[in-house]
DNA sequence: ACCAGACTCGCCGTTTTCGGACATCAATGC
DNA sequence: GCATTGATGTCCGAAAACGGCGAGTCTGGT
């Protein structure tokens, strides 16, 4: 049956809404956006606790304050071999940069697996920390984000030092 | 990914061949027949140990010596809800008795789920202890057994006090 | 000419769906 | 006798559908 190992969760307010954090003893497993796309209820056997998330909380707060460009956290995302390959490649996109899905496909040596990369991106269990928001359409359009396009736009604006007030007024095209 | 909880295994010689025993901390999980149908190699992360199987070993030895008619062991079989229902019902078939797949289906209040019962029976992870060998065709034929029909015949003969020598000469029809 | 959209088609991993096969058995029609 | 059929849950394989794409074509408006 499923694992007996304990799973922890907690919530964290942020400029882009409440974040639900999930972790096990070996690292951070998931981050959900409140009202995000794959929103689901915490599993009944999970336990709420703040202690496992002290590091995560601090680094995310620093990130949103514009004071952190890189995360140093134990991560433990779950997925297929292909998905993990894509997700770890995300971590290598520099802060503030953007690449296209096609380029990302090339970087994992599967230049034709473009749609598959898109699908894997769409299931990134650790948004923000694994910066899937830095991947955009080859024509510069944002095309999609689990936490909603405004959030994607906000994160990119944040990383480019743009003033925060214009959550809905950015110059970045939505399409 | 999967559980971190330790899994133990060991082997036990018996009149019907070597038995592979698998257990976790909450009870016996599996018994395989050497050369049985769903024969598989022990998982690489399992650890071999004798201590968890002291009780199991003694009770099985007593059973094969004809000195035990009922097992008193912590069991922890894994399966679907339906399968567990079938398997626990097996434990209520008296020593030496036989019933048909149809009767077994009735006892779990699903008189039509006869084939499903057959399939569940075929996946009994704890043969001998959960006596699937006591389930036979409605016409008295043995019809099938994970450890081979001769073994099924042997177990039934043992439980009926028949002399052991005739492993292949029993009067019980094979079909 | 040029450009923005709308449309088509090929690409690929994952998910979903579907169809059989099973350690059955009783009823039916021939 | 004997083949057929229907009822049940699960597993397994195959097949199809489905995406946070992208390059190419076509169309219509300037």
TrEMBL record, chains A, B:
Residues 81-160 form the Methylated-DNA-[protein]-cysteine S-methyltransferase DNA binding domain. Residues 10-76 form the Methylguanine DNA methyltransferase ribonuclease-like domain. The keyword Lyase does not apply. Belongs to the MGMT family. GO terms for molecular function: methylated-DNA-[protein]-cysteine S-methyltransferase activity. The active site is at residue 132. It catalyses: a 6-O-methyl-2'-deoxyguanosine in DNA + L-cysteinyl-[protein] = S-methyl-L-cysteinyl-[protein] + a 2'-deoxyguanosine in DNA; a 4-O-methyl-thymidine in DNA + L-cysteinyl-[protein] = a thymidine in DNA + S-methyl-L-cysteinyl-[protein]. This is Methylated-DNA--protein-cysteine methyltransferase. PANTHER family: METHYLATED-DNA--PROTEIN-CYSTEINE METHYLTRANSFERASE. GO terms for biological process: methylation. This enzyme catalyzes only one turnover and therefore is not strictly catalytic. According to one definition, an enzyme is a biocatalyst that acts repeatedly and over many reaction cycles. It is found in: Cytoplasm. It comes from Dyella halodurans. Its main location: cytoplasm.
